[in-house]
Input
Amino acid sequence: MTPKGSASFSIKGFLHAVPVTASWRDGYLIADEELSEEIDHLIAGECTFLSTDGLTMKASLSEPSAALLTVVRSFSQVTQANIKFVLDDRWGPIVDGEGTVIEIRRPGAPPGTLGGLRGSPYVDSAQSSVAPT
Output
């Protein structure tokens, strides 16, 4: 669990062609009304996320990873993300809408690499014999 005061994120994008934004910090969300309704629907519907190793996590705004998954899933399209906590690799690669894997800057990596694109389409190794580059 991430200590209080050390986790936050902000997301920009679209919900059904309408520009929307959301910001989360330590269990508190500020979001456009339309997006808030989508998020509430996921939580009330007990949406569950499944990791690559079988871990499940319910939609929630109380814990950083759950909040990020819940908020991102509420968007139709994400155009910008600023994530200020370490992402757990068990949730698999982050892939944009065109199949491009988005690299996440690891602790100690040089500034400017956060959210950089690797530039290669994502290939699920379980479904293909071609390894991603």
User: Anything to note?
Assistant: Residues 102 and 117 are 5 Å apart (CA to CA). The two ends are 32 Å apart (CA to CA). The first helix runs from residue 33 to 44. The chain has two helices and nine strands.
